[in-house]
Write a structure and sequence with these properties.
8% strand, single chain, four-stranded antiparallel β-sheet
């Protein structure tokens, strides 16, 4: 039978053990507090990223814009739903049954301290996100090409061809009226030395270019697009401008959004717009507006009006460019001079003949420009400044240009409609383009069944989310006497911008 041992513990040793255990538990609690902060940061990151993963899929698929609808398909405004979703994600991740909450932290609150909406600061979010989308994988030579096209289109010296043509035509008409009055006076007076036959009759040509110009301008007054495209093929989409972001009063975020852009960023933003927004002649169409780029340029109420506004700008550039081509080509100037002498030679006034010559040049440039625009809208290419070999119309037969199916010659080294749009976009400020882009996106969203309530001024793309946590003491609670306040409160922030 073994001997039973007896033990004893001195009071002094017991006191030492209490101190040692207090130190150990205090160190353990300090380590735990450190881990609480790590866990809180981890849960916050996961929750915010999970919440921001619920971006609107339609905007991303069609316009490469990442933003979360704060209403989540409802008419709710503000970040309340986003805050609750973020808190729910955090609670799920920190739940011992679903996540890995070894620290026993409890998410208690969530607050979007600062957040930014797509429309804040005149659409700076759209500019930033669009530029980022274009920059991904975009080569430097592509940026240079965009800048080159912009410079070419906007580098044409603008001439008021229409005014000059109308002025010369008016001079000729006045001269004809004066001639008719002189003939009538000679026929009715009693002077035997004056006779109507003493005055030369005005000359005529088979196809008067000035009459052809008047006919084309009359058709233009009835509808510009009808002179260059088949009107039956045009989109009839109409929008209510007053209800669009660029016109209505907007909700505002609480964050500061500022994105400065240089020449390169401007080129990137233009490339983004032309890549993701539709324009006349494209196969890809979005819900809502069909001529989206044209709307970005002009901001008109209907697709047809937006396209007409762009065609008017095209006409101004093409008229001026074609006018320059005629002036630098002696053979073409000589043809205009010959017709002017036939039509206005009866005046024997060099000034009037000269004015009529430039009126004919203007009418010729206008007719050629009409053919150019038809070609561009049909997908062809036209040189900025044409050579005589690339010229199509005949000043002796401008009436042949009336047929809407008649187009200019294809120019191998020319640029297309898209490149001209680049130039027109460059004339608008980034802020104007961004707000009109919001108009386009919102109209497209409302054209779907799932996103009829989505507003661009309720779509968040950046936020600083703050989540508050509570936790209980673990090791120090063993020493609690019941008179101390146990537990911790932690706050973590996570800033996320797409």
């Amino acid at each position: 039978m073994g001997k039973k041992l007896k033990g004893s513990l001195t009071v002094f040793f017991a006191l030492i053990m209490v101190s040692v255990m207090s130190l150990i538990f205090t160190m353990a609690e300090c380590i735990r507090i450190y881990e609480l902060h790590d866990f809180a940061s981890e849960y916050t990151d996961m929750a915010v990223e999970s919440a921001f993963s619920e971006y609107n899929p339609y905007l991303w698929a069609n316009y490469r814009i990442l933003a979360v609808d704060l209403g989540y398909g409802t008419e709710a405004v503000g970040p309340a739903i986003l805050e609750q979703k973020t808190l729910d994600y955090c609670r799920y991740n920190s739940n011992i049954d679903y996540g890995s909450n070894y620290a026993r932290l409890t998410p208690a609150s969530c607050n979007a301290k600062q957040y930014s909406l797509l429309t804040d600061n005149l659409g700076q979010g759209v500019i930033m996100l669009g530029t980022k989308a274009a920059r991904d994988g975009m080569a430097a030579q592509v940026i240079d090409a965009v800048q080159g096209n912009v410079n070419d289109v906007n580098g044409v010296e603008i001439v008021n061809v229409d005014e000059q043509t109308q002025s010369g035509k008016a001079d000729l008409e006045n001269a004809k009226e004066e001639l008719a009055a002189a003939k009538e006076a000679a026929a009715n007076d009693d002077d035997p030395n004056t006779n109507p036959s003493d005055y030369p009759d005005p000359g005529e040509v088979e196809d008067d270019p000035l009459d052809a110009f008047s006919t084309m301008k009359e058709a233009l007054s009835k509808g510009l697009l009808a002179t260059v495209v088949d009107a039956d093929s045009l989109s009839d989409k109409r929008v209510d401008l007053d209800n669009l972001p660029s016109h209505r009063s907007l909700n505002a975020g609480t964050g500061e959004v500022a994105y400065s852009t240089g020449i390169t960023d401007k080129a990137l933003f233009i490339d983004y717009l032309l890549t993701n927004y539709s324009y006349y002649g494209m196969d890809r169409k979005h819900a809502g507006m069909q001529y989206e780029i044209e709307y970005l340029v002009s901001g008109k109420e209907t697709d047809a009006q937006s396209l007409a506004a762009v065609v008017e700008e095209l006409m101004v550039i093409r008229e001026s460019a074609n006018y320059a081509t005629i002036l630098k080509t002696p053979s073409m100037v000589n043809q205009a001079q010959a017709i002017a002498e036939i039509l206005a030679g009866f005046t024997m006034n060099p000034a009037i003949i000269e004015a009529v010559k430039y009126a004919i040049i203007g009418a010729w440039a206008y007719a050629e420009s009409t053919l150019d625009i038809r070609l561009l809208l049909a997908g062809g290419k036209v040189s900025i400044i044409k050579s005589s070999e690339e010229w199509t119309s005949d000043v002796w037969h401008l009436s042949a240009c009336f047929d809407v199916k008649t187009k200019a010659k294809e120019c191998k080294g020319g640029i297309g409609y898209k490149e001209y749009l680049m130039g027109f976009l460059a004339l608008q400020s980034n802020e104007t383009l961004a707000m009109r882009a919001c108009d386009v996106m919102e109209t497209a969203l409302h054209g779907t069944d799932d996103y009829k309530n989505v507003k661009c001024d309720n779509m968040i793309f950046a936020a600083n989310m703050e989540i508050g946590f509570t936790g209980s003491e673990m090791f120090l609670s063993l020493f609690s006497t019941g008179n101390t306040i146990e537990g911790y409160e932690l706050t973590k922030e996570k800033y996320l911008c797409y």
